[in-house]
Amino acid sequence: MLEPFGRTYVTASMPGVDLRWLGERHRGIIEALRERDPERSAEALRQHAVEVARLVGAVSPDGDRGSPPRPR
Questions:
Q1: Does 31 reside within a domain?
Q2: Would you say residue 71 has pLDDT above 50?
Q3: Considering the domain boundaries, does residue 33 fall inside one?
Q4: What are the tens digits of pLDDT across the range 12-30?
Q5: Dist. CA 14–CA 8, nearest whole Å
Q6: How far apart are CA 44 and CA 23, in angstroms?
Q7: Residue 6 placed within a domain
Q8: 38-57 and 27-34 are packed helices; what angle lies between their axes, rounded to 10 degrees?
Q9: Which run of H or E residues covers position 45?
Q10: H or E segment to which residue 32 belongs
Q11: Domain range enclosing 24
């Protein structure tokens, strides 16, 4: 399993990825940590993990990564 920096690097390297969108994916985590709110931090991390799982699932078997899905 890749370390967090490695996973972010791989995602940021995907063709067509919107780096502002990618950065926004971490805003809730950072805000919760700054506020020292353990419950909110844990929930933000859980939501992020679910979103990352969807992103990884969007990678097709032939290796074509395309653009990451944007949350609705």
A1: yes
A2: no
A3: yes
A4: 787 888 889 888 989 999 9
A5: 10
A6: 14
A7: no
A8: 170
A9: helix 38-57
A10: helix 27-34
A11: 17-57
Q: Which residue has the tokens 């805003």?
A: 27
Instruction: Please report the pLDDT score of residue 4 as a whole number.
Output: 64
pLDDT (tens digit per residue) in 24-67: 989 999 999 999 999 999 999 999 989 888 877 776 454 555 55
Q: Which residues, including other chains, have CB under 8 Å from residue 11's CB and lie 6 or more apart?
A: 17, 22, 55, 68
18 Cβ partners below 8 Å, 6+ apart? Answer: 67, 68
How many structural domains are present in the chain? 1
Contact 22, 11 (CB under 8 A): yes
pLDDT surpassing 70 at residue 10: yes
pLDDT of residue 60: 45
For residue 69, is it within any domain? no
Tell me how far apart the alpha carbons of residues 35 and 44 are, in angstroms, rounded to a whole number: 13
